[in-house]
Amino acid sequence: MRFDIMTLFPDMLETIFNESIIGRARKKGLIEIVCHNIRDYSEDKHRKVDDTSYGGGMGMLMAAPPISNCYDAIVRNIKKKPHTIYVSPKGRTFNHKVAEELLNYDEINILCGHYEGIDQRIIDEIVDEEISLGDFVLTGGELPAAIIVDAVSRLVEGVLPSKECHEKESIASGLLEYPQYTRPVEFHGVRVPDVLLSGNHADIEMWRFERSLEITREKRPDLYEKIDLEEKKKQVKEYIINACTGGNDDGKKK
Predict the structure, then answer these.
(1) What whole-number distance in Å separates Cα of residue 80 and Cα of residue 76?
(2) Which residues have a Cβ under 8 Å from the Cβ of 175 and sit 6 or more positions away?
(3) In order of start, what are the domains of the chain with their CATH numbers?
């Protein structure tokens, strides 16, 4: 899977993408991320990419020509039209479901705005969809772009260490995460729940599911109302059976 990112700050993004799981996935060739400096495509001798807005207003606007030139170079390189996203507060809110949808594209191009935004004509010409992280405004689109790339990349086969990671995420989709603990067993008088020390995988998975439900109901009632409880319980039971038997119909673990 390939991501092209049109930005004024490629070094900022490269710092993020060269670290941790995403950095290792790049080195393995599981994903390709190319950051393009829009200034390199400016026709101005000073590499200017912005100008004042017609009709007046505060701040500067990113001009269409440098962005258009950058986009054309990307299309020539990959020899096809990528799915182009403009990160903007006007877009649909990004979540796990949207990340799964974006996984269907082989090439994703993300346009990062700055200043007061970009010329509407370039949005109309090249952008397939606008995506927002929420009801707030940032100084630029680089951080949202990094989040989108991270969330989609971890769904690519081989990026996460095991298939089980994806299976658990599929089951938990729509639920907040359960509490987690590590050593020591007791810290400041608080012990790790006994069920997590029991070694009984079925009990542990059920405990995690029940805690996730409780936390979601308490902290995100809007998410909880959308949950199909019977379907979730069915998924959890199937996961527990597979985890405990190794997926064998005879019930014997491999």
Answers:
(1) 7
(2) 212, 213, 215, 216, 223, 227, 232
(3) 2-153 (3.40.1280.10), 163-245 (1.10.1270.20)
- Please classify residue 174 by burial: count the beta carbons closer than 10 Å to its beta carbon, then call 0-12 exposed, 13-18 middle and 19+ buried: middle
Rounded distance between C-alpha atoms, residue 55 and residue 50, angstroms: 15
β-pair type (50-52, 32-37):
unpaired
Evaluated on CA atoms 158, 164, 170, 172, the torsion sign reads negative
CB 242 within 8 A of CB 252: no
Q: What 3 state SS string does 148-199 have?
A: HHHHHHCCCCCCCCCHHHHHHHHHHCCCCCCCCCCCCCEECCEECCHHHHCC
pTM of the full structure: 0.87
User: Rounded to a whole number, what is the distance in angstroms from the first to the last CA of the chain?
Assistant: 33
Q: Reduced to 3 states, what is the DSSP secondary structure of residue 246?
A: coil
Cis ω for the linkage preceding 10 (within 30 of 0): no
pLDDT in tens, the chain (254 residues): 999 999 999 999 999 999 999 999 999 999 999 999 999 999 999 999 999 999 988 889 999 999 999 999 999 999 999 999 999 999 999 999 999 999 999 999 999 999 899 999 999 999 999 999 999 989 999 999 999 999 999 999 999 987 667 666 655 578 889 999 999 999 999 999 999 999 999 999 999 999 999 999 999 999 899 888 888 888 888 888 877 776 555 544 44
Parallel/antiparallel/unpaired status of strands 83-93 and 129-132:
parallel
